[in-house]
Amino acid sequence: MTLFQIDFEPIGKRVDADQAQSLLAAAQQAGIALAAVCGGVGVCGSCQVRLISGTLSPLTAAEKKAFTPEELANGWRLACQAFPLNNIKLEIPPESLTATQRLQLEGAAQFIPLAPAIKAQFVWLDPPSLTDLRADWKRLTDVLAEKGDVPQAEPSVMAYLSEKMRQNDWHGPVVLSDEGAVIGMLEPIVHPFGVAVDIGTTKMAIFLVDLATGKTIARQGAMNPQIAYGEDVVARIAYANQSEADRLSLQRRVVETLNTSIAQLCDSVGVMVDQVMDIVVVGNTAMHHLFAGLPVRQLGEAPYVAAVAQSMRFPARAIGLNGAPGALVYLPPNIAGYVGADHVAMLLASRLHQLPGTAIALDIGTNTEISLSRDGRLVSCSCASGPAFEGAHIQAGMRAVPGAIERAQFYDGDWHIATVDGLASVGICGSGILDVVAELLESGQIDEAGRFTEKAFRHVDHPQGGAIELVTAEQSGTGKPILVTRSDIREIQLAKAAIRSGVEVLLKQTGTTPDGIDHFLVAGAFGTYLNLESAVKIGLFPSLQRDRYMQIGNAAGIGAQMMVLNAKSRREAEALLDRMTYIELTTVPDYMDIYVDAIVFNRNE
Q1: Right CATH number for 118-185 from 3.10.20.880, 3.40.50.2300, 3.40.50.2000, 3.50.90.10?
Q2: How confident is residue 522, by pLDDT bands cut at 50, 70 and 90?
């Protein structure tokens, strides 16, 4: 029997299946909650998936009925009807899942005065008459000039205004940017809104901000659809480099998802999309470039420089993003090729540069960005930590979806676990594998090199250097044991070494030791859910007093909201770029020695 590998994205799950198993059966084997309302007989159309690569069985009559010819040409299939003919990769859209991944939206909120980069001027205009033949645009600019404004507008906005003035009976709020560009005109009784977006490599967070009250009134998480083209930044850069069409397709997928999210957020609170006047978007440098339509080839080649580091502002419609006719997009600056605007937003929200003493802030992901502030000095670096802490490259790894093991303890001679939403375990996510490795180390089941010892509980032979049976087949939600292999432990060692060595380099560059750290801030989704004690046990973080650590959630999202609410926050973010010194780790003479030292566990002893 020949087995084929099936990769399910954006779940980040891989399963072996034979030619007799449908994609639905393979998904169920992997513990993926793929919708199948009709029980998998091909009549409901709820189990839609899209083929990214590989070959599937011929189309069935049910599939030809369920999809348009264009959809079929784009790879859409019914999971209950399609069977693998070789190794394949699939995209599962959110609507085909009965359970969604946990997304981090909250962060440590900051008070920020309401002073946005737009303003609304209420105007009363005299309608045209035979004795007043001024053009519509002239009529508007005359009134705005009396208020001290010198407005500008693009032809498409002028065309919109001409119709809107008549619909509004020649009065209502006209919204202008702080640079004088007319963005739109609203109904007399409504006011403008802004949107803040944090585009992560895996997930996105979208916030709808009321620019009259300063409150965030709706928020939504979404998977980054680009993950179907590569789980990490490097893979996505490689895909974008294949052709301009491929690069722009990555941009289009994100913009389409954002348009859907913005429409849903607006609809949920009774706001019209054309009330969205100002949009702030943050992300790592690759996500920033792909969103803005910039080339990314140079990000994948030494010396890994950004195409644009400075802040950017452009019309939303230039990239197909919905909002008011003249809605503007603002992108904060990037620090370096692998330290982007999301890190700048995180620094802004955390006020790292204003904290007394020595302060470190980091956001753990496939690429981990770290900054250190000391005596007014800011230094940063980027670490290729890999996707292990997101559940990838782990035997039973998965993202934080229901049924993923997120907590683990070993006591009374057995494993005790907790899963997302308390469901039967189907795999293990980043916080769970961190706990497992920490518990293995503390209980003596692995040594400092990460090798299993004779104390390993439920140890089994495995081609990846042996394994322990974390959850038995009888206890799991898949009917198969959930294993943690020696190879899994090695992935955590390498990720831990990348991050800890980055911290050590910044400390060394500023003449500081771990004992001198006064504040240690951990941002992002993984940083929110990880067990700090586990991180210290394996040496991922230095051993400090507990009150020196702070888990600050989606600080990048908070920073983006701050820049929607207050134009001065944008200037502050831009000033951070001027103060920051970026350190390319590969240029540090003894970096490899520091990295190798950090691979070994018990770094804090």
Answers
A1: 3.10.20.880
A2: very high
